[in-house]
Design brief:
Structural class: mainly alpha
Strand content: under 5%
Radius of gyration: 17 Å
Distance between the termini: 52 Å
Low-confidence stretches: none
Number of helices: 1
Helix content: over 70%
Mean pLDDT: 87
Order of helices and strands: H
Largest sheet: none
Length: 40
């Protein structure tokens, strides 16, 4: 773990750990926006 050249590896791990949550929020917002627009 301490052999990482710089913070790029740490940023990658953080993004990888948060990506599923972000994707879930984006999908939920897309469904909400779609339903809201469809109802008029």
């Amino acid at each position: 773990m301490n052999e990482a050249p710089d913070s790029a590896y740490e940023v990658g791990v953080v993004i990888g750990s948060y990506l599923p949550f972000i994707a879930l929020v984006v999908i939920a917002y897309a469904i909400y926006h779609y339903n809201k627009k469809r109802r008029g």
